[in-house]
Design a protein that fits this description.
The protein is built from 4 helices and 14 strands. By secondary structure, the protein is of the alpha/beta class. A hairpin with a 5-residue loop joins strand 12 and strand 13.
């Protein structure tokens, strides 16, 4: 029997202020350094963690191209810390509305990106959907990417499993409803947690894959995010979770 290979992952719950790119990059660097010190092979960040969850029409200066210096800085961090980094931003689209982009950098190389496929509700006014599902391979680990509302499309996870992915990294930024002044953080956190357990747990079991979740956390200038890091194993069990709605890093090990 072939021996299983073990990989350490770090799922980052990050506060991502809108359009505060330099600030978010500094926070990223601290998390990447901590993740590497904690033995992580892959450090995964939430949806739009570089740009924050911006309105691209009100904050067009924070809509970036894939060759923007901020993306290049993350690629350089992956070289500096000898690690694989998964990160996200709002991407300029010369053909129309921008994309929600999640990209992979490893040891100083940009390996590629995934553009969020599931664009619905208010996002249809701001963003265009992607139409591809690339898979990535780093040090023998094959994985796919999904972003937030992709949680509602089981076909995305089915397709990754068909392509041989051992794990899908779900990067999310589900905005919480209600007034910020009266925010009930526990209820918001529990809503997202139960959504992940019900849907991602089922996909993991159905496709016999791991699914890891990294979520934006905390208050931004005009919106709040629930946080939450989770790892579902190929039986659909939530075997690791962050436990609250604060910033932090969830460390987990997977074997393939």
């Amino acid at each position: 029997m072939e021996e299983k290979k073990r990989f350490n992952i770090a799922l980052v719950q990050m506060n991502c202020e809108k359009a505060a790119i330099d600030r978010n990059l500094r926070s990223m660097r601290a998390s990447i350094a901590a993740g590497r010190a904690g033995g992580a092979d892959i450090v995964c960040f939430p949806e739009m963690n570089i740009t924050g969850y911006i309105d691209p029409f009100n904050q067009p200066h924070a809509v970036l191209s894939l060759d923007h210096q901020a993306v290049g800085e993350v690629v350089r961090m992956s070289a500096l810390y000898s690690v694989c980094v998964i990160a996200g931003f709002v991407e300029y689209n010369p053909g129309g509305k921008p994309y929600i982009n999640q990209f992979v950098a490893h040891n100083g190389r940009l390996l590629g990106c995934y553009r969020k496929k599931t664009i619905k509700d208010e996002e249809v006014y701001w963003f265009a959907p992607g139409d591809r599902q690339p898979i990535f391979s780093v040090a023998g680990l094959t994985f796919g990417l999904s972003v937030c509302a992709d949680i509602d499309d089981p076909d995305i996870f089915r397709e990754y499993a068909r392509k041989g992915a051992a794990i899908v990294f779900e990067s999310a930024a589900p905005g919480l409803y209600g007034e910020q002044e009266t925010r009930n953080w526990a209820s918001g956190y529990n809503w997202w947690r139960s959504n992940c357990i019900a849907k991602l747990g089922a996909y993991a079991a159905e496709q016999s894959i791991y699914i890891g979740v990294a979520t934006q956390a905390g208050r931004t200038m005009d919106e709040d995010f629930p946080g939450g890091g989770y790892l579902f194993d190929p039986r659909g069990q939530c075997v690791k979770e962050s436990g609250d709605w604060g910033e932090g890093i969830l460390y987990a090990e997977i074997s393939v």
